[in-house]
From TrEMBL:
Pfam families: Pantoate_transf. Belongs to the PanB family. This is 3-methyl-2-oxobutanoate hydroxymethyltransferase. It comes from Halomonas salina. Mg(2+) binds at D45, D84, E114.
Amino acid sequence: MKTVTLSTLQAFKRAGETFSCLTAYDATFAHAASEAGIEVLLVGDSLGMVLQGHTSTLPVTLDDVCYHTRCVARGKGASLLMVDLPFMSNATTERLLEDAGALMRAGAEMVKVEGEAWMADGIRELSRRGVPVCAHLGLTPQTVHQLGGYKVQGRDAGQAERILEDARTLAEAGASVILLECVPASLGRAVSEALDVPVIGIGAGAGTDGQILVMHDVLGVTAGRKPRFVKNFLAEADDVQGAFRRYHEDVKARRFPAEEHGF
Ligand SMILES: Nc1nc(=O)c2c([nH]1)NC[C@@H]1CN(c3ccc(C(=O)N[C@@H](CCC(=O)O)C(=O)O)cc3)CN21
Ligand SMILES: CC(C)C(=O)C(=O)O
Ligand SMILES: [Mg+2]
């Protein structure tokens, strides 16, 4: 695989070619995912749940994310490395810039931040300083206590319109990529069609420009209740490498996600 950059993702979008993304937390699995052709690796704050055993992503610290970023950076190969800003990194613009700086020094090539239209100023400041930003909308796990659980977002027309407007606002502020989590497939498609920037979906249907899943879910080792949008690709493969390859190929061929994985 040729080195994946932001321009690669933009070119995929223009060409109507989809791309695959997967979370990674260490060098060995990052290497396997990259070898399988997965274009984007995310050091997700989901590590608080799948690695640390918490029931939310809130306890994850900047040091935790930096540590896993350094590990993944050594194995990432040609894949693009995106990293989550942890809970409260967006408390102030100053903190946002400092925390993003720490992630970039650890090896991140793009940072991801949860937040609606009010994040526009922070995203503009990051982008002015040369930090590519992915804006995470829809189900934002860092606000789980306000949302009342990990629930589908944008189900009614007003809510859906709001998410589309937020995505537009953040793209205009300088977000290079939008990520939509747990929204109806119709909204995933509408946002992707309305914006020029690549849109990555998880539980957002087959109409987004890229797809992402948590690595543990792809390998069928999800602890607790399984979200509807996950699929165990190891069940149809001989080994971990094969599962990653299968996931990548199914995304590229638009065989995944199927109707049953969406809302
Ligand atoms: N293993 C794992 N996979 C993930 O995708 C993931 C994490 N952990 N941790 C961080 C967040 C939390 N996420 C979640 C967790 C649960 C649901 C879930 O159970 N959703 C219901 C929606 C029910 C509804 O509102 O209709 C579902 O049935 O999928 C969704 C996203 C996504 N992220
Ligand atoms: C589920 C993805 C999008 C994420 O934010 C994470 O892994 O933390
Ligand atoms: Mg996250």
